[in-house]
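Before the break, one more example. Copy the sequence into your notebook; we will annotate it together after we see the structure.
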Amino acid sequence: VLITGGTGSFGRAFAEYLLGRPQPPARITIFSRDEQKQHQMALDLPPGRYPIRYCLGDVRDLERLSDVSQSVDVVVHAAAMKHVPAAEANPIECVRTNILGSHNVVLAAQRNGIARVVALSTDKAALPANAYGASKLLLERMFLQADLHGSTRFSVVRYANVFGSKGSVVPLFLR
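Here is what the structure looks like once it is written out:
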């Protein structure tokens, strides 16, 4: 299993969930661009103790993503620029990560014959009112279109604010 954005709130929780299963995957690859988060995660989930591999990289880099995704059966695509104000202030960065990066996930999966790819989306993709929601709507369309061609199965899941995740509205409500 390859988890893009593997050091984020979802990625880390999902890796811990998989590792706690009676039969965890043979290998979990954590792919993210934040070396400090990877270092911290590796201290908590060391590769010598768990079937886990940490790979620095960015979904914006198709070649790196293609290399890391070789011999992978499943990709969970959680990498994203997800903070709405940051996406509004930097829309091209949002496009590069959430749309072009997601397109790279599709291309790498097709190149490597990966069986299944699941992308995380958001409730903000329904009638988007901001750059983040629009970028996730386009991710959904890309994945659904890619699912029509070839043997790789592409799926999308939507969810809303996750309690306690980075960027959650909960701290704002508590303040």
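The chain has a mean pLDDT of 94. Strands lie at 2-4, 28-32, 52-56, 74-77, 116-122, 153-159. Try to locate both features in your own notes.
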